[in-house]
Amino acid sequence: MKISTKGRYALRLMLDLAENQKDGFIALKDIAQRQNISKKYLEQIVPLLNKSGILITSRGYQGGYRLAKRPEECTVGDILRITEGTLAPVACLDTAENFCEKAESCMTLSVWKGLEKAINEYLDSITLQNIIDTHHSRTADEYSI
Predict the structure, then answer these.
(1) How far is CA 48 from CA 53, 104, 123, in A?
(2) What is the pTM (predicted TM-score) of this model?
């Protein structure tokens, strides 16, 4: 499994919103500038996040985006499933029902199911707030006089 640019940028976008949520609605151009990501590319990602209900949009002069949930309620797993579609490590696990003709006799299926479970549990255990807190504690440790 490889996370696409879309998934990685969506996570950065959501982290930026989480860190700047006190400022209210955030303009996409500001996020693009801070994250050094093309605004055009972010415009392709936002509809996916907005449609899923993870973002709130406000149009107009003071418009922009903000999180629909608190940062401690948004998981990396949620964001990546929205942008990547699935986190399954193999194609036969992409859907709820396994349509592979070899599923009944596949010796490796349990390996892939275990990997999928580990991936989902791990990514669902990390929230935006966890990432922010870890980053801030790491950068605070690096400060010296």
Answers:
(1) 9, 35, 19
(2) 0.89
If one counts every other C-beta atom within 10 angstroms of the C-beta of residue 54, the result is 19
Give the rounded percent of residues in the chain with a pLDDT score beyond 70: 96
Q: Can you give the pLDDT at residue 144?
A: 55
Contact 84, 4 (CB under 8 A): yes
Mean per-residue pLDDT of the chain: 91
Residue 72 has a pLDDT of: 97
CA distances from 104 to 62, 90, 101, 110, 124 (A): 56, 16, 8, 11, 29
- HSE of 16, CA atoms in CB hemisphere, 13 A: 22
Residue 30, classified by CB atoms within 10 Å of its CB into exposed (0-12), middle (13-18) or buried (19+), is middle
Q: What does the angle CA 51 – CA 125 – CA 56 come to, to the nearest 5 degrees? A: 25
- pLDDT over 70 (residue 142): no
The packing angle between helices 76-84 and 5-19, to 10°, is: 140
